[in-house]
Write a structure and sequence with these properties.
Layout (H helix, E strand, L loop, with lengths): L2 E2 L5 E5 L2 E5 L14 E5 L5 E7 L7 E5 L6 E4 L5 E4 L1
Antiparallel strand pairs: 1-2, 2-3, 4-5, 6-7, 7-8
Length: 84
């Protein structure tokens, strides 16, 4: 989960891309937190709130960008990413 919007949609990162999705009526979006895992159905609707991952990817910090909130990191196979 990347963020929750005021209209109760959520931004998630899935299948290598960022998407804005709707939530099932039984999901309390006020309880969702950034970084939490969510389960999607076939229609790409959030149907269940999960936990936080206990594993991740090791990356090397290359530089902190001028805004002070984002950084350039290098991961697996020298892949560069901007993170915040």
């Amino acid at each position: 989960l990347l963020s929750v919007q005021e209209d109760d949609t959520v931004d998630v990162f899935t299948s290598g891309r960022k998407m804005r999705l709707t939530c099932s009526p039984n999901i309390d979006t006020k309880e969702l937190k950034k970084g939490q895992t969510v389960r999607l159905n076939e229609a790409l609707t959030v149907v269940e709130a999960g936990h936080y991952e206990s594993v991740g990817e090791i990356s090397t910090l290359r530089e902190i960008l001028s805004d002070g909130h984002r950084a350039l990191v290098v991961g697996h196979a020298d892949e560069e990413r901007i993170v915040w």
